[in-house]
Design goal:
The chain is 29% helix and 33% strand. With 180 residues, it is an alpha+beta fold. The chain has a single domain, classed as Cyclic phosphodiesterase (Cyclic Phosphodiesterase, Chain: A). Strands 1, 2, 3, 4, 5, 6, 7, 8 and 9 form a nine-stranded antiparallel beta sheet that branches. Strand 3 (66-76) and strand 4 (82-87) form a beta hairpin. Helix 2 packs antiparallel against helix 3. The radius of gyration is 17 Å and the shape is globular.
Length: 180
């Protein structure tokens, strides 16, 4: 089973992203069940969960809440079929992503290779993006720039999730970040 290490937002940032998400779904007449808002930092395959949570807790201990910059929402209805906010790939979040990848690899966990081309994003519609009104395959195969967004969002905790469809059972452990 795969486990996901994700960055979660504080209340104010989450409310802002939810509003963007609702506007997008309203504009393109998407489904009403909205996915959770997060940034995936790492994916770990079949770990010893106790060892994994211990390693993550140790790594997170010195870190404070931090900001990430989002610079636009894009919709893609090609092979990936999603809408997302692009996260700027520099600063604190990239350092954390590299740190988790390197340290988990050193501890024998099954993680992906750290790639400098790894783009971080916040999924707004999951992978079920579709327009009820627009069935044209040609129109749906392009990137659509939905909205110009230039905003800083605050990440206040990391969470370890298991890959299940039940939201109540999904969260394995929460790792709050220290206050400023």
């Amino acid at each position: 089973m795969k486990y996901y290490l994700v960055a979660m937002f504080d209340k104010e940032s989450n409310e802002y992203i939810e509003q963007v998400q609702k506007n997008l779904c309203k504009k393109y007449k998407l489904y009403k069940s909205l996915p959770l808002l997060y940034i995936t930092l790492e994916i770990v395959g079949d770990p010893d969960v106790d060892k994994l949570t211990k390693v993550i807790a140790e790594l997170v201990k010195p870190y404070k809440r931090f900001k990430v910059k989002v610079d636009g929402a894009e919709c893609s209805n090609s092979s990936q079929k999603f809408a997302a906010l692009k996260v700027e790939n520099k600063g604190y979040i990239m350092r954390l992503t590299r740190l988790f990848n390197d340290r988990l690899k050193l501890n024998g966990f099954d993680v992906k290779e750290n790639s400098p081309d790894h783009d971080l994003s916040i999924a707004l519609t999951g992978n079920l993006f579709h327009s009820k009104e627009n069935g044209s395959r040609e129109k749906n195969s392009e990137h659509i720039r939905y909205e110009e967004i230039d905003r800083m969002l605050v990440v206040d905790r990391l969470e370890l999730w298991k890959n299940v469809n039940n939201r109540k059972e999904m969260t394995v452990r929460k790792f709050p970040l220290r206050e400023y």
